[in-house]
Design goal:
By secondary structure, this protein is of the alpha/beta class. It is 26% helix and 17% strand. Bound molecules: alpha-D-glucopyranuronic acid.
Length: 419
C-alpha cells in the first residue's frame, strides 16, 4: 500500500506548485459537438455523454447479470445513556446467472441511529477495516473475508481481529453525529470486493462479472460504488431512515468511490469527498502529487484497462475531474482537503469544485462561494462546499462538523414534506 502517508513518494512526483505543467481543462460548458451549453436541458444531455465517458475510460462498465438482494435485520442493544440504536443488516446478494457458478455473497450494513419518532437523515459510507472498528458495540460482527493488513503485533494477515473493535471511532464520531439528529450507515468495503489486484477473480466481480464479456470491465472502485447503491436500496425500505436525505461520503479511495456512487445514483441527496485526491476530486492535468501512471501502477484494480492508456497522457483524457463534480449537479457537494495531504493535491481538489460551479449556476444555484484557494480551517458552505483542514490525510471530527453544517444548510435534517 504505497502513498504519502506510508512515506513513499515517487521520485518524479510534483509537490511544488511551480512545477505544475501548463494545462488546459476541457471546458465544462461546451458539449461534445463543441457547442456552448447555455441551459440545464443541454447540460443534462452533456451529463449523459460525460457519464458514458467516465464509464468507458476510467471506472468500467457494470455487468448486466441479474441479481437479487435479501435482507435480514437484527436490532442490537441500544446505548443506555443516549438511546442511540444499533441495527445490523445482513445483505445477501445472489444470482442464478453468475458467470462463474458462484451463487451468493454476504455483506453487513451497520446503522447507528439517534432516538427519533421521525425518519432520520443518514450519512452512508464504506469503512476500511470492518464495521466492528466503527464503534465499540460488542454485537457488531467482524468481517468474514479479506481485510487489510493489521498494524498491531500478532494480528493475523488479512483476517479481521477482535482487537480492532472501536479503533476507527475517531473517523466515525457517531455520538456527535447522532446528537445532531443524523444517523450513520456503514459497510465494510472488503465485503463487496477485496482491495487487492486479484484480476477481478473475487468479491462481487466473481459473482456478477463475466470474464468472457469484455464490455463489462467493472473495476473495484465502481464495484464499491455499486455496493453503496445497494445499501441505499436497503435504506429505502427502513422506516427509521429518511431515504430522501442520504448523503454518501468517503475518505481517500473511498472518497473517490463516493463521488462515483453519487454520479451514477441520483438518489443520493448529497455527496461528500474527503481527501479523495487522484481519481477523486483532484484534477488529473495538474499532475501534482499522485498521477494517473502512479495510481494505475500501484492500484491496477481500481480503474479499468482503458484508464491505463492515459498513463503520462493526462492531456488526452477526454474529461477532467471537475466534470465528475459537475455530474453531481445540482445536488449539494462538499469537498474536504487537508493541508499536509499533498499527495492528494488539495489545490487540485479545490480547483475541481471551482470549475464545476458554472454548471450549478445553470440550475439557478449559487454555485461556489470561493474564487481563491482558501486559508486553512475556513470552510465554505455554499451548495458546492469546501474546506482545507490543517493537518494530515485523515477524516476527523473537524471534517464531520463541517459536513453536518453543510448538510443542514442544504436541507438535510429538515422535516419530511408530503410530496
Ligand atoms: C494511497 C493512494 C491514494 C488513496 C490513498 C487512500 O495513498 O495513492 O490514491 O486515496 O491511498 O485510500 O488512503
Amino acid at each position: 500500500m504505497l502513498g504519502e502517508q506510508d512515506g513513499v513518494w515517487g521520485q518524479e512526483a510534483i509537490r511544488d506548485e511551480a512545477q505544475v505543467p501548463a494545462y488546459k481543462l476541457p471546458a465544462v460548458l461546451v458539449d461534445a459537438a463543441g457547442q456552448p451549453i447555455t441551459d440545464a436541458a443541454a447540460w443534462e444531455r452533456q451529463r449523459g455523454v460525460l457519464l458514458e465517458q467516465f464509464t468507458t475510460e476510467m471506472f468500467g462498465r457494470r455487468p448486466s447479470t441479474p441479481y437479487e438482494v435479501g435482507y435480514e435485520t437484527e436490532e442490537l442493544t441500544a446505548d443506555a445513556a443516549s438511546g442511540v440504536r444499533f441495527k445490523q443488516v445482513t445483505m445477501t446478494v445472489s444470482t442464478e446467472h453468475g458467470p462463474t457458478g458462484r451463487q451468493s455473497q454476504r455483506w453487513r450494513l451497520l446503522l447507528i441511529l439517534p432516538p427519533s419518532d421521525q425518519p432520520v437523515p443518514v450519512f452512508l459510507g464504506l469503512n476500511f477495516q470492518g464495521n466492528h472498528t466503527v464503534c465499540e458495540h460488542p454485537g457488531v460482527a467482524l468481517p468474514e473475508g479479506w481485510v487489510r493488513r493489521h498494524e498491531f503485533p500478532g494480528g493475523q494477515e488479512h483476517r479481521a481481529a477482535e482487537e480492532m473493535r472501536g479503533t476507527a471511532q475517531h473517523r466515525w464520531p457517531w455520538r456527535m453525529i447522532t446528537e445532531q439528529g443524523f444517523g450513520v450507515a456503514t459497510m465494510y468495503y472488503g465485503d463487496i470486493d477485496a482491495d487487492e489486484d486479484d484480476q477481478f477473480a473475487g468479491g462481487v466481480h466473481q459473482l456478477l462479472r463475466d470474464p468472457a464479456d469484455p464490455s463489462a470491465d467493472w473495476a473495484s472502485i465502481s464495484a464499491w460504488a455499486w455496493g453503496l447503491s445497494r445499501a441505499l436500496d436497503y435504506l429505502e425500505t427502513d422506516s427509521a431512515v429518511n431515504a430522501k436525505q442520504v448523503a454518501v461520503l468517503g475518505h481517500s479511495r473511498l472518497g473517490k468511490t463516493a463521488l462515483w456512487a453519487g454520479a451514477t445514483d441520483p438518489r443520493f441527496a448529497a455527496i461528500i469527498s474527503n481527501n479523495s485526491g487522484c481519481g477523486g476530486a483532484a484534477l488529473h492535468r495538474r499532475r501534482f502529487g499522485e498521477t494517473v501512471a502512479r495510481i494505475n501502477q500501484v492500484f491496477p484494480h481500481w480503474f479499468n484497462a482503458r484508464f491505463k492508456t492515459y498513463n503520462d497522457r493526462e492531456d488526452q483524457i477526454p474529461f477532467d475531474q471537475h466534470q465528475l463534480i459537475a455530474c453531481l449537479s445540482p445536488r449539494p457537494v462538499y469537498v474536504a482537503s487537508a493541508s499536509e495531504d499533498l499527495w492528494a493535491d488539495p489545490r487540485g481538489e479545490f480547483l475541481s469544485v471551482l470549475h464545476a460551479a458554472p454548471v450549478y449556476q445553470l440550475y439557478g444555484e449559487e454555485g461556489f462561494g470561493l474564487t481563491e484557494f482558501p486559508p486553512v480551517n475556513s470552510p465554505c458552505f455554499t451548495r458546492l462546499g469546501y474546506h482545507l483542514r490543517s493537518g494530515p490525510h485523515e477524516i476527523l471530527e473537524y471534517d464531520w462538523q463541517q459536513f453536518l453544517s453543510h448538510a443542514r444548510q442544504h436541507g438535510l435534517g429538515q422535516p419530511l414534506t408530503n410530496e
